Amino acid sequence: MKITNIQLKQSEEHNLISAQIDDFNLWYKFPKEIMPEVKADAFIAACLIPSMKLGSDIFIDEDIPVSIELLENIENLQIIFSSWGKHLGHKLNIIKIKGGKKTKFTAGWDKTISFFSGGIDGTFTYLKHKQEIDYLLFAKGIDMQLSSDELYNEALSKNKDFLNKEGKEVIPFETNVRFLGHQYGVGWSTCFGGGLSSIALAAGAKKCYIASGVTYACMHPEGSNFITDHLWSNGFTQIIHDGAESTRVNKLKQISKNENALNILRVCWHDNGYNCGNCEKCLRTMTNLRVLKLQTPTFKPMTDQLVKTKLSKIKIYSAIDMEFIEENLAEAIKINDNVLIKVLKKIKRNYELRSLLNHFDHLFLNDFLKKIKLKLFNRT
Description:
The chain is of the alpha/beta class. The chain folds into two domains: 2-242, no CATH class; 270-364, no CATH class. The chain has 13 helices and ten strands.
């Protein structure tokens, strides 16, 4: 994989840093207050997992600066991710980074940043570290499509209003880094630790918090986690994985102490309204609100009818998503919410039955059922 033509273009409103990754043009567009430097670190972070999947070394032009510390960290990152390959769904090979002018970075944008979109994880991390955080970054192209102008502007307006009341500034920016992995058959869930870190490295921030989506207790191999995120640091930019000590229910409980934060809650990534209220993520968040007896104008209340007609229909396919169901079940039991208990137990039982069937298929049928399913899926 070749990283070439790294360049910075300045306009009256934006600074855009980009590079050619084989046939893919990867770019980060920041407002004027962020001045990226022409160096390879961000592009290496974004490309590492796709390159490992391809088994292809990364080649950089000889005159482009690259952090010595990042290169050292990448050796450890590769050892970890290659050992997780079967869990991530890909064989991830150890590769080499070739070329570049090895440099020790000691200066940059001397600010602490965190990503913010109005969601539970990012809001929890912000409220926890708000005395230290200088700017909150809201990305177009990460939580929503680059073409979703109306929705992005609505969410940006709400984020600005909230953070202005907090005495903080939100910095809107755009990037297509989320789509890089798809060029090589790698999903965002596998790439997003390097992808988010690449944004911080491109901006040249001194410190960047990446909010954890799961707890230490239920950590599974994933693109962003407390084991690997700090290794995307490059000597000046420090990457910190934050919030894994708290469940999502407990995070929401803390957020509810700030009414303004609760009032802009947005978790949906389907680009179908501020929150669609129908996807698994929306429904589990509405369940969080119900068990905590909280309300927000950005969600309908999770009534008994919605529990029976919508929540009961969801299917869980991953252990991570199952952890969220179990969190809500534990809280429902505490408050003796029998309607919710019954449905959540049903969802859990169905997940366990599917898992048992998958194990049986793998152990005794040599994945025969899985192959049939894939054939049918590909045929459609």
